[in-house]
Specification:
The protein is an alpha/beta fold. It has two domains: 3-179 and 348-360, Rossmann fold, CATH 3.40.50.2000; 186-345, Glycogen Phosphorylase B (Rossmann fold), CATH 3.40.50. The chain has 16 helices and twelve strands. The protein has helices at 19-33, 51-62, 71-80, 95-103, 118-125, 132-149, 158-168, 186-190, 209-221, 237-240, 258-264, 280-287, 306-309, 316-324, 336-345, 352-360, and strands at residues 3-7, 38-42, 86-89, 109-114, 152-155, 174-175, 200-204, 229-233, 249-252, 267-270, 292-294, 310-312. It has a six-stranded parallel beta sheet with strand order 2-1-3-4-5-6, with helices on both faces. The protein has a six-stranded parallel beta sheet with strand order 9-8-7-10-11-12, sandwiched between helices. Helix 1 links the parallel strand 1 and strand 2. Helix 4 crosses helix 6.
Length: 362
């Protein structure tokens, strides 16, 4: 079985944030069919930096080809697709590919992976960035084409699945949750002391709309009301808090080994209210056996008892009560329930059977 893997990222490179799911998709498929049987097209890797080519890309934007997708790349994909049993499109923002392949009578299977509901995400961003109104149109057309023309559509959770069905009218959408390879060191994470009072909180996330919205809200509304110490780690976050002057908040654009910070934190916090899909950093926190304080949106798609892994907070008052309460003071920094949930449900091996089922389905 041969697979053409079409991505906006390098699925075989170093991954972080949302690209970890792309890497997971590629890795699991490689394990199932053999790496030599998968070819990659990375559409954001441009063949030219000339002004003429940039103008050509802008023209493609007008025709709703986005994130590096162009007419010439679509023609190339169409010309070679017949050599592959499966075309795996790793984002719904490339739904136009599925449309063109079907119109050109491609006989193989088209699988499209929805990392988010992109239309919804860009609608939220449009309130602070008017350019996203144009991106909304791109998202709507491409997602609609992905739903209509892909043989199999895949989302990360039931909520996204239902929203996609309601908006675009597809009867069935396969669900494959986010998973990660287990890169933790059990000897390091299991022998942790009791939670400190006041606790050290850790937020991990790059300069991305939903992360920025959430962590700014938390710093403004919650931190002045607690003695907790907050560490923020994420590419670009330094500029967000460049002029921040407070003794109990540290911001890092980059750290050499993030695992040290995760392991030593008393809690991973996720005050994220926007977006869709699943939050990768929750899965990472589970892998390290951490206590987690997050919003309902942060835990969306995770099948577990949140009260055993931490607590859900959706308001300023709930976050303050959780941080100043007594419920956590007998816990250790290592949460065995979180770790066991990760091992049973959110390792990459746990979804191999679902991938095998969709690539073998008729």
């Amino acid at each position: 079985m041969n697979i053409l893997f079409i991505s906006l990222r390098d699925p075989d490179g170093k991954s972080q944030g949302g690209s970890q799911c792309t890497n997971r998709n590629y890795t699991v498929l490689s394990d199932l069919v053999g790496k030599k049987n998968i070819d990659i097209i990375n559409l954001t890797k441009d063949p030219s930096t000339s002004l003429l080519y940039k103008g050509y890309k802008f023209l493609n934007l007008l025709f709703l080809n986005y994130w590096g997708l162009t007419f010439s790349k679509i023609r190339h994909i169409t010309s070679i697709a017949e050599n592959y049993d499966i075309v795996f499109v790793d984002t719904s923002m490339y739904g136009n590919i599925a449309s063109v392949l079907k119109r050109n009578k491609y006989k193989g299977k088209i699988i499209c992976f929805f990392h988010n509901i992109e239309f919804k995400l860009r609608k939220e961003i449009s309130f602070v960035n008017p350019f996203s109104l144009w991106e909304m149109l791109h998202a709507y057309v491409n997602e609609k084409n992905a739903i209509k023309y892909a043989d199999i559509a895949v989302s990360l959770n039931q909520k996204d699945s239902l929203e996609l069905q309601k908006k675009y009218g597809r009867r069935k959408i396969t669900i494959i949750p986010i998973t990660l390879p287990d890169i933790s060191n059990p000897e390091r994470i299991e022998n942790m002391e009791q939670i400190s009072v006041p606790p050290t909180l850790l937020f991990v996330g790059s300069y991305y709309y939903a992360n920025v919205h959430g962590v700014k809200w938390f710093v403004k509304n919650v931190m002045p009301e607690t003695d907790a110490r907050l560490q923020i780690i994420g590419k670009g976050m330094g500029r967000l808090f460049r002029n921040l002057k407070t003794r109990n908040i540290e911001v890092f654009d980059y750290v050499e080994d993030i695992s040290d910070y995760i392991i030593n934190a008393d809690f991973i916090i996720s005050p994220v209210f926007k977006g869709s899909g699943m939050k990768v950093k929750i899965c990472e926190a589970l892998m390290y056996g951490k206590n987690i304080i997050g919003t309902e949106e942060s835990f969306e798609g995770y099948d577990m008892d949140v009260n055993k892994t931490g607590t859900v907070c959706n308001t300023k008052e709930e976050f303050i009560k959780a941080l100043d309460g007594n419920w956590f003071q007998k816990r250790t920094k290592y949460n065995s329930y979180s770790r066991n949930i990760f091992l049973s449900k959110y390792t990459s091996e746990s979804v191999s059977n679902i991938f095998l089922e969709i690539i073998n389905s008729k």
